[in-house]
Amino acid sequence: MAQTIDMQGKVALVTGAASGLGLATAQRLAEAGATLGLLDIDADGLESVAAALRERGTSVRSEVVDLADPAQCAAAVAGTVEAFGRLDALCNVAGIIIMCNAHEMPPEQWQRVIAVNLNGPFYLMQAAIPHLLVSDGAVVNVSSSAAFIGEAYAGAYCASKAGLTNLTKALAMEYMHQPIRFNAVAPGGMLTNIANNMQMPEGVDYDLVKRYTGMRGLVEVSEVAEMVAMLASDAGRGFHGACINIDKGITAG
């Protein structure tokens, strides 16, 4: 029997909340009754989302944060706990992808992808863990099908998501005897700002790209958000150290 996603009386911190999967996750958690801390680097988009959720009766704290900055990550967690008195779930949703020929990728682009997709989630988890231990809380990291297969022109993205997936498992083992859960979801391609703004390098071989675009089309953002919300709630209490692929078969073979 399916478990009800109930976040009444609980506080969730969601990154990338201004658009795409982060927005859908925030909306689903709000529907489940959560109080929300919302983070994004897009100030205008973040304020618009926060205002819309407040109109629906959700208590929201929003903050513009660059996930590459460990001090900003720590401050965001501290600010959320100060505002609401607790933290029950951290949903690391934000991510970026830069498509590039590996031998042409500038160091600053490589470093930016790793900083946002891997370093930022670690900094946030590092700050959140003490509070989540108190609340018997949960971390949900958004990985990708790119963590499990090689994707041409996406070396930095693949590396960052593979790292995040194994980091999730490492922390699940480290805190095996503590009241906290670490899980990840690994979507395939979704119709989000990341997909809409993706630019392929000059001379791209689309036969290689087709190998990881999937034969069943794009994944529904709402379905991934539902899984993130479930894992963040007590409905996901049986999951620890899992990475759930939602990719319409991309990584099946």
TrEMBL record:
Pfam families: adh_short_C2. The lineage of its organism: Bacteria, Pseudomonadati, Pseudomonadota, Gammaproteobacteria, Cellvibrionales. Gene3D superfamilies: NAD(P)-binding Rossmann-like Domain. SUPFAM superfamilies: NAD(P)-binding Rossmann-fold domains. InterPro entries: KR_dom, NAD(P)-bd_dom_sf, Sc_DH/Rdtase_CS, SDR_fam. PANTHER family: EG:BACR7A4.14 PROTEIN-RELATED, ZGC:101858. It comes from Mangrovimicrobium sediminis. This is SDR family oxidoreductase. SMART domains: PKS_KR. It comes from the Bacteria. Belongs to the short-chain dehydrogenases/reductases (SDR) family. Residues 10-190 form the Ketoreductase domain.
